[in-house]
Each structure stands twice: as structure tokens, then as C-alpha cells.
Design a protein that fits this description.
The protein has 290 residues and is an alpha+beta fold. The chain is 65% helix and 8% strand.
């Protein structure tokens, strides 16, 4: 079903717009819950206090460098001499994505089919597992690299870090509000000092933001898929790679949790294939691996 397809740019543009709108809506929901918790605790100055708390958290939680993340993952750097074709493809993807520098490649000696990006800007890096290098075709590997380049180009590492900051600041205000409510009830002996509605809101605020943060992560995966299709001119390569990864996980009974950072593979593949259309003859491809 994949052989004679070409990218439907109108469908791709519409899908990317939906994904970006969803990202904005999810983040707005996280910020609203943060403001609500701050308002319950400090009143009219909630916006200023919440912003100050977020700034402090940002300063305390700097995004780790790509080198640190890769070493923690037991990955080792790959030089252009060791993988010239891979670096050539990555350089072209980086150029198309508008990156100022080509990310550094790292090798992770694990049998699973996996790849991930870390860092940002000139210090970004992409790790590729031994299983991915051995199992994926060049078309599929280019699709996977394009997905990681898309994450870097969109600043998803920083975005997710800001999301974690919002989660932590919300947790601080929620815990502070619950503690103050408990102290008022104990000191006065009057439960009316802590209305049940406000107490419940504070209790569910942190889990709600955590769920939204997971939704934000899954949404950014969809966005990276779509951007990867635009970078390569080919949605099929990444779709095939995703199916291979899913098959590998199922064969080894790797559990799929509901609270996960990546959306279901079937849904990702469906969205990618919604951006291609069948043609009567093989078109001149825009992909870089031909």
C-alpha cells in the first residue's frame, strides 16, 4: 500500500495546524491550573507570585546538556568518518529544518530499535541504538532521524522543561494551600475555614497538570512526526519505522502503559498516512535517500 504515494501538502499543513493548536490549548490549561492554585493561596497577587516562582524554578532546573544525557544513557559519539552516509543525511535534514549546526550522532549499544534527541541549538545530539542501525532500512532510518531533528528544531526539549517547571510550581502552591487549610481547621476547630470545594481543587491540581504534561509530550510526538514528513518529503519511511518498533515491542511483550509520553503507534501511523495520497505512477521523490 506504500509503493506509489506522494506527500499531500494541504493535508500535512492542516494536520500541523491542528497539532499546534492542541499544544497551545494544553499549555494554556496547565497555566490556568497554576494560576488558580496561586489565586487560592495568595489572592489577587497570584499572577505575579506564580511568575516569580516559575522564574526561580527555571533557574534551578537548567536543561541538561546533550553530552550529559548521552553519557547517562551509556551512548558514545559517532564521528562522520565512522558513519559518512548517516551524517550526510543528517546534515541535509538539519539544513532543511533551519538548524544552525548539525546535531552530533551518538551510538547506543542496545538491541532495541530506539532513537532520541537531547540538548538544543549547537549543542544538540541524537542517539541511535544498535538495533535501529541493524534493523531499519535507510528510508526508515532517515524518517527516524528527521523525527528527532524536528524535535530539536521545534525546541521541544525546552518546551517540556518549561512544562515540568509549571508542574513543580503548581505542586508547591497546591501543597502550600492544603497545608494552610489544614492549619486553619486545626487552629480554629471550624471546618468552614477550608471549604471542601477549594480543598478538592488543590488536591487534584497536581495530578491534573501531570496528565496535561503527558498529553503535551504525546502531542509534540505527533508534531515531530508531521514535521519529519515535511523534511523528507516522505511520510511512509517514518510510518514503516514506527511499525517495526511497535512489532519489536510486542514480540518482546514490552508493556504499553496508559500514562506514557508517546501516543499509540497505530494512531501515529494513521496520522502520517493521512498526509499521503496514492498516485498512478511513481513520482519524483523529494526524499534524500534516493
Amino acid at each position: 500500500m506504500y509503493a506509489y504515494t506522494m506527500l499531500d501538502h494541504a493535508a500535512l499543513k492542516q494536520a500541523r495546524l491542528r497539532t499546534n493548536v492542541m499544544t497551545a490549548a494544553i499549555f494554556a490549561g496547565m497555566l490556568f491550573i497554576l494560576w488558580l492554585c496561586a489565586y487560592i493561596v495568595v489572592g489577587d497577587d497570584a499572577l505575579v507570585v506564580a511568575a516569580a516562582g516559575a522564574v526561580v524554578m527555571v533557574l534551578m532546573s537548567a536543561t541538561p546538556t546533550a553530552g550529559l544525557v548521552m553519557r547517562l544513557a551509556r551512548a558514545v559519539p559517532i564521528s562522520p568518518r565512522e558513519a559518512p552516509d548517516l551524517y550526510s543525511d543528517l546534515a541535509e535534514l538539519s539544513r532543511r529544518a533551519g538548524l544552525s549546526a548539525c546535531p552530533r550522532l551518538w551510538w547506543q549499544g542496545t538491541p532495541g530499535i530506539n532513537a532520541f534527541a537531547a540538548g538544543h541549538g549547537d549543542g544538540a545530539g541524537i542517539a541511535v541504538s544498535e538495533g535501529a542501525l541493524r534493523t531499519l532500512s535507510r528510508q526508515e532510518l532517515v524518517g527516524v532521524l528527521a523525527h528527532e531533528v524536528a524535535h530539536i528544531a521545534a525546541g521541544d526539549t525546552r518546551l517540556m522543561t518549561v512544562g515540568i517547571v509549571v508542574l513543580r510550581v503548581t505542586q508547591v502552591f497546591a501543597m502550600l494551600g492544603l497545608l494552610l487549610s489544614f492549619m486553619l481547621v486545626v487552629l480554629t476547630g471550624d471546618p468552614d475555614f477550608a471549604p471542601i470545594g477549594l480543598t478538592l481543587m488543590l488536591a487534584v491540581a497536581t495530578p491534573a497538570v501531570a496528565v496535561l504534561h503527558l498529553a503535551l509530550s504525546r502531542n509534540r510526538e505527533f508534531a515531530a512526526d508531521l514535521r519529519a514528513a515535511r523534511l523528507t518529503g516522505d511520510a511512509v519511511g517514518l510510518a514503516r519505522a514506527l511499525e517495526r518498533i511497535d512489532r519489536y515491542q510486542r514480540e518482546r511483550s514490552i508493556s504499553h502503559k496508559w500514562l506514557r509520553t508517546h501516543p499509540p503507534t497505530t494512531e501515529r501511523v494513521e496520522r502520517l498516512l493521512d498526509t499521503v495520497r496514492l498516485v498512478s505512477r511513481r513520482p519524483q521523490p523529494a526524499v534524500i535517500y534516493i
